[in-house]
Every structure is written in structure tokens, then in C-alpha cells.
Amino acid sequence: MAKQSVPSVAGRGLSGELRQLRRARRLKGASVAVQLGWQPSKLSRIETGQQGVRVEEVAALLAVYGVVGEERERLLAMAERSRDKGWWEAHGTGLTAWSRTFNLFEAEATRVVSWQPLLVPGLLQLPEYTIALMKGCDVGAAEVETRVAARLARQAILARDDPPELHMIIDETVLRRPLGGHQLMTRQLRHLIELSERPNLSLQVVPLACGGHTGLDGGFVLFDFHRHPSVVHLEHKISGVFLEEPDQVAVFRRAADALAAIALSPADSKDIVARIAAEHEREGVSDDHA
């Protein structure tokens, strides 16, 4: 038997979307396979990323699921690129192809390592913090609601019976920037402390006193999976990119290890978060009396 190739990021993202489409329509995999004249095991392998899928096979599935128009064209374009290594996508309004894949990976990962030098990680954001961020970045009012709802949906993995292991590393600057005002930051930082009590979540802060370090050239998210190779995601203002080559992933894993080594321990990190939250609270009271 020929050895199956490792599915690419685009292929894995497509597999996840096809699985979600079937489930959203409350269709059994076996019944879909019968309609298409396939063995049920074939559809199962496609949906779990164990088998590649041709463009014509995706078209057949979309016909069964009643997907038409722009959504059909988007998924067929993904199918055409499903064997390509690496994946770059431009941002658009709402959930783009890359953000859908990011959300799927986040939900399926067994471990997520995130380095954020500027902002509270999305999984840990209060809705008000997300709104303040979107407004600060000049996101259109019509798009803010969609993005906030998507971010809240992502956070559902925190309440799962089997949540992924989360290792969140942030810069002290994240804690001190009064995004949305001091009162909001007080609530956001106390929310971080509450979340850090979860057994699957480790929060570390890199103090400003560290000076220069390997994380100053930007944030990243590293996903580890049970059966699939690890993937790194980099997000930019108008684009996002997934890296999947082992040597590329290794660069970011070393960076994450280096950042964890210079960061405060989880206990000391919790202390500095609490201390800066108290500072924001005092500033917020001063603002009210100004």
C-alpha cells in the first residue's frame, strides 16, 4: 500500500469545514456516502484529514449539502490548494478562510502555546476588551459584532470536558496598556487571574526588565495535535499565514521555550497581574474624580 502523504494546513482546514457542513445539516456520514456511491470509511478519512480529496469530490459533497455561490467557490478554491504546503490568506470581512481554519485548529489542538507581546490572547479576552480593540484598530462597526461573536465562540473550548493544554506567554506591556480605559483593564486583568486558576492553563509574563529578547519581532501561536503535525500561525494586519514545515515550526518552538525561560513563573506572573490590576483600579478611581 502506498504511504499516505501528510495533509497540508489547507487540506486539514478543508476537511474540518466539510465535517462541520455535514453536521450542521444533521446528516449521517453513512447516508452521505451512500448518495455518492462511496464507502462510509472514505468520507470518514476525508473529514479527519487522513485522506486527500479531489476538487470533483468536494463539488459532489457541496451539492449534497446544498452549498452554492461564493461559499461553494471558496471551498473549491481550497480544494485546489489542498496539497500545497504553507498557506497565506488575505483578511476580508467576517470569517475568512484562514480564520475558519485557525478556529478549527484551536478547537482540535491538544496543546496551544501563544506568545503575545501587545494584546491579551483572544481566548482570554473579555467581550468589552475585544470591542475596544476592534474600535482602536478602526474595524468597521458592521464587522465588530461578527468578530466579537466569533471570538466568544472560540472561548467555548475553555469549558469543554477535555480542553486543550494552554500555555499563554504575554509581555508586561500587555498588562499596562489601558485598552478601553483603566476600569476595563482592571476587570480584564482580574479575568486573567481567574482563568489562570484552571489546571489546563499556564500564564506567564515576560517583565519589561528583560530588555531585548527573541519575542520582540512579533507574536505567534503554536498548535500541537494528537495525530497531525504541529502548525504555527502568524497574524498580520491584513493577512495571516500558517507554517507547517518541521524546520519552520522548530524555530518557533525554540522561541517559545526561550520566552518561557525568561518569563516569570506562573505564581509570580499572577502576582504581577494582580499588582497592575490594582494600579489600573486606582487610576480608574482618579479618572472618575477628575
From TrEMBL:
The Gene Ontology terms for molecular function here are: DNA binding
Q: Which InterPro entries did the record assign?
A: Cro/C1-type_HTH, DUF5753, Lambda_DNA-bd_dom_sf
Identify the taxonomic lineage of the organism of origin: Bacteria, Bacillati, Actinomycetota, Actinomycetes, Micromonosporales
Bilayer-spanning residue ranges: none
A Pfam family name for this chain?
HTH_31
Which Gene3D superfamilies did the record assign? lambda repressor-like DNA-binding domains (1.10.260.40)
User: Which residue numbers delimit the HTH cro/C1-type domain?
Assistant: 18-72
Give the superkingdom in one word: Bacteria
Protein name (Swiss-Prot/TrEMBL): Helix-turn-helix domain-containing protein
UniProt organism field: Micromonospora haikouensis
